[in-house]
Amino acid sequence: MTPARTPLIAGNWKMNTTPAEARRLASDVIHAVGDPAGVDVAVCPPFVSLHAVAEALRGSAIALGAQNLYPAPSGAYTGEISPTMLQNLCRYVIIGHSERRAYFMESDEFINDKVRAALEHGLTPILCVGESLEQREAGRATDILRAQTTAGIAHIDDVAPIVIAYEPVWAIGTGVAATPDDAREGISVIRETIADARGHGAAESVRILYGGSMNPQNVESLLAQPGVDGGLIGGASLNAEQFASLVRAAAQQG
Ligand code: PGA
């Protein structure tokens, strides 16, 4: 029997909040979420707020994540942040978000380096994959998901600790989430790809989230789909009440 996967609701605050605002938002999230029984919850603030948010979260059930890392332990990489700097501060790190793929030209190979660096330092990578609207309309969504997933987990024997987020680019920040069917379909392509590469047991152990305009109105139908193990939330994670209602929805599905 495969062990049940604990749902994860992770907030991606992106380039929002000053350290003071981040600390306040973290306190608000703690109060709004309360005891998230049966659900893993994380918030991922900007780098400069990690320390303040870590302090605010101390003693709470909410974990901390970063939004990126550079895949080297230290060195001459001006402006970058290494996994060694994050490893005692964070549990999670978002890797390969579509904004980084698009605006910072991150390749699948570079993203794989980052996933491996995260794992080597005891961080849980949240590897983002997803097709653009253009790719979807050209009938290439499945190929893109397969390629990004295969590349993302390359050279990694034990994929179980990896979290993958299926984030169709056309659904991010647009207010137009994927339909529950589309979310289920995308996630099943990702899980099949892992099964082909690493076997069924490995595929069943990986948590796969949906991300892209998830909100209190659509969360229940998205999480009700088989194989959807939680959400990576952008906009709605900046509002403590909305974020907490997503956590409650995940707890009710459990
Ligand atoms: P969104 O962002 O919820 O604002 O669409 C999700 C994400 O980019 O991770």
Percentage of residues in DSSP E strands = 5-15%
Q: The biggest beta sheet, please?
A: 8 strands, parallel, barrel
Q: What pattern of helices and strands is seen along the backbone?
A: EHEHEHEHHEHHEHHEHEH
CA-CA gap between termini:
18 Å
From the alpha carbons, calculate the radius of gyration and give it in angstroms: 17 Å
- Structural class assignment: alpha/beta
List keywords for this structure.
single chain, alpha/beta, 254 residues, binds 2-phosphoglycolic acid, eight-stranded parallel β-barrel
Task: Please provide a written account of the structure.
This protein has 254 residues and is an alpha/beta fold. It has helices at residues 19-33, 50-57, 83-86, 98-103, 108-120, 133-137, 141-152, 180-198, 200-205, 219-223, 240-253; strands at 8-12, 40-44, 62-66, 92-95, 124-129, 163-166, 207-211, 230-233. It has an eight-stranded parallel barrel, surrounded by five helices. Helix 1 packs parallel to helix 2 and helix 1 (19-33) runs parallel beside helix 11 (240-253). The two termini are 18 Å apart. The site of 2-phosphoglycolic acid has 13 residues, from strand 8.
